Each structure stands twice: as structure tokens, then as C-alpha cells.
Amino acid sequence: MNHNNFTGVKEPVSDVDLQETEVKLNFIFPPEFREHYLNFNGGSPDKYLYKHYDSIFVVQQFLSVKYGRDTFDSAFSNLRELIPHHLIPFAFDPGGNYYCFSTDKADFASIYFWDHENYDDPHSGTIQISNSLTDFLSKLAPED
Length: 144
Hints:
single chain; about 140 residues; alpha+beta; two-stranded antiparallel sheet; 4 helices; 9 strands
């Protein structure tokens, strides 16, 4: 699924760890996220640039399920009231913006970019940039 190396990955997690996070934070990991996190618990992708139309997005780091500072728990405690409730943050850019996946039935597992500058109107600060994690990861590119 992933042709990208991740550095700074935290200790491996198990399916039980993923289930505990799901129960605690009240969401379900899409299958491809489950697979990804069983292989890479957080970390920074070597290929980190994502082009979407005329915009280029930088992926600095994926959140870890547990271990370390930038976890799903910490993101939820900081962002839950700021981002739309159907979006689950999983990665961030250098400017404090987040990449999220959707838990909504209509676009389950789609990837959104949330711009923190629009925290007062979270829906205007989100744009869908990919239909899946697989598509998102396959389009990450290194810096030229």
C-alpha cells in the first residue's frame, strides 16, 4: 500500500491498541488506516509533498496511536471542539494545520486538510484533498 519510508516512528502498536483508541475517542479507524498504523505508528514520511490542483501541501508528521507527544489523544484534547466532528486528525503540517480522515458515511475515509486559521468557522477551513489514505500516500512526493 505504501511506497514511502517513515522516520521517527514510535514503538509498534497492536490491534488491541487501535481498538482502545477507537473506544476512548469514539471513532473507527478505516481498514487502510488500521493497516498503516500496524506498520507505522506515527513518524514523518520521506516523501512529504502532496499536490492538489495548484496547491502543494506539506506533511510533517503522522500522529502516533500511543507513545510520544503527538498522539491521537493529544490532538483530540486540543482540537475536538475546533474541527468538524466527523473529521479525525491523523497528521499535521509545519504550520499547525491538520490532515484528517472522515468518519461520515457519505465519504468515509476521505482525506481532508483543516486550516487552523479558520478555527472560528471550521467547515470553511476544510477541503477534501483525497478519497483514501492509499491514494494520499501514493501521491506524496519528495522535494525536487
